[in-house]
Design goal:
The chain is an alpha/beta fold and about 130 residues long. It has a domain at about 60-130: Nucleotidyltransferase, domain 5, CATH 3.30.420. About 30% of the residues lie in helices and about 15% in strands. The protein has 3 helices and 5 strands. It has a 5-stranded mixed beta sheet with strand order 3-2-1-4-5, covered by helices on one side. Helix 2 packs parallel to helix 3 (about 110-120). It is found in: Cell inner membrane; Cell membrane. One of its GO terms (biological process) is protein transport. Belongs to the ExbD/TolR family.
Length: about 130
């Protein structure tokens, strides 16, 4: 590291980047800590499977089933009998609608099967079942 002496009357025009680096490192730590907290709004224990690369998707509709058997569409709770109608309305808005289904691993398979049947009856053909790695 080179130190300059002030023997000459020249003005130093070098920028001190140390505070900038400190701020960037603090921001990096903040993002690393907060990013995992933003991903799961509904606590669901997903079953474990092999890792598979998902296809490119633009804003898929997420249907979630929690441990109590409650059904959610993108964080909004919905009654099971209204699921098909809501999905048909979304399908009418977007003909290329993609749906992701995630269910807690303790949920009865019958609830998941009924949700999948409602998705199929709504005319949605692009369905991804989400699991944990």
């Amino acid at each position: 590291m080179a130190f300059s002496t002030q023997e000459s009357d020249e003005v130093l025009s070098e920028m001190n980047v140390t505070p900038l680096v400190d701020v960037m490192l603090v921001l990096l730590v903040v993002f690393i800590v907060t990013a995992p907290m933003l991903t799961n709004a509904i606590p669901i224990n997903l079953p474990k499977t092999e890792a598979v690369a998902p296809p490119d998707q633009k804003d898929p509709l997420v249907v979630s089933i929690d441990a109590a058997g409650k059904i959610f569409i993108n964080k909004d709770e919905i009654q099971p009998d209204l699921l098909q109608g809501s999905l048909q309305a979304e399908k009418d808005k977007n003909t290329d609608l993609r749906v992701q289904l995630q269910a807690d691993d303790s949920v009865d398979y019958g609830v998941v099967a009924k949700a999948m049947a409602s998705i199929e009856k709504a005319g949605i053909t692009k369905l991804a079942v989400i699991t944990a790695r």
